[in-house]
């Protein structure tokens, strides 16, 4: 399935930060409850026993809530970090839009065009374009000979370096997909599976029968 991945890094950062703050608040509540339990344990009576019992119920409920928030924080934070390391917001932008198939298709078109250019230039520069013996005008003949020498100068001295530069550019274009786009898409797929697992973990399932 063709997917376009659109990420707003500021939103991801904001969600991760809020979840981190929520997690910190839960931990503060846990610390406060521990102190309250300490005070209760030095006392006796039915009321105290009831409060300690309620404490255990509340403690378990908070632990469940803490685990869920911690899982959400981890997935948002890790996702933002890994996706940013692969392809962050380009040119200072806060949003990235990546379609793996579009980029691979465009890369192939670019590479094909550059290779065709190299082929055509190599073919043209390899030809002997001029037949000096059929020219009557000496000045025109000299001009043609000079053009011929220039063509050979380009072919023998300039074109090899230019061709090498184009081939290096082809390699860089091909590496974009391998080094960045594919890992970006695969990382997103991995986190989508991880998110599905969390959804299954924390969403009550309907009972059958």
Relevant terms:
209 residues; mainly alpha; 2 strands
Account of the protein in words:
With 209 residues, this protein is mainly alpha-helical. The protein has four helices and two strands. The chain has a two-stranded antiparallel ribbon with strand order 1-2. Helix 1 runs antiparallel to helix 2 (46-86), helix 2 (46-86) runs antiparallel to helix 4 and helix 3 (100-125) packs antiparallel against helix 4. The radius of gyration is 34 Å and the shape is rod-shaped.
Task: Sum this structure up briefly.
This protein is mostly helical. It has helices at 9-41, 46-86, 100-125, 138-202, and strands spanning 4-8, 95-99.
How are the SSEs placed, and which strands pair?
Blueprint: E1 4-8, H1 9-41, H2 46-86, E2 95-99, H3 100-125, H4 138-202
Helix pairs in contact: 1-2, 2-4, 3-4
Span from first to last CA? 36 Å
How many helices? The count is 4
Biggest sheet strand line-up: 1-2
What is the residue-mean pLDDT, rounded to a whole number? Answer: 76
**Poorly predicted runs of 5 or more residues:** 89-93
Radius of gyration over C-alpha positions, nearest whole angstrom: 34 Å
Total strand count, please? 2
């Amino acid at each position: 399935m063709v997917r376009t991945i659109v990420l707003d890094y500021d939103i991801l950062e904001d969600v991760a930060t809020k979840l981190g703050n929520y997690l910190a608040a839960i931990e503060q509540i846990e610390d406060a409850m521990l102190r309250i339990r300490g005070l209760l344990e030095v006392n006796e009576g039915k009321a105290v026993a009831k409060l300690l019992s309620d404490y255990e119920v509340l403690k378990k409920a908070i632990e469940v809530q803490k685990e869920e928030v911690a899982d959400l924080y981890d997935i948002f934070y890790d996702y933002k970090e890994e996706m940013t390391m692969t392809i962050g917001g380009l040119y200072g932008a806060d949003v990235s839009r990546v379609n793996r198939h579009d980029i691979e298709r465009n890369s192939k078109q670019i590479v094909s065009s550059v290779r065709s250019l190299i082929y055509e230039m190599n073919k043209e520069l390899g030809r002997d374009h001029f037949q000096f013996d059929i020219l009557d005008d000496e000045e025109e003949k000299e001009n043609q000979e000079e053009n011929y020498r220039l063509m050979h100068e380009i072919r023998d001295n300039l074109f090899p370096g230019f061709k090498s530069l184009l081939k290096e550019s082809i390699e860089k274009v091909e590496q974009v997909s391998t080094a960045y786009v594919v890992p970006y898409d695969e990382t997103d797929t991995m986190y989508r599976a991880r998110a599905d697992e969390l959804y299954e973990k924390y969403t009550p399932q309907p009972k059958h029968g």
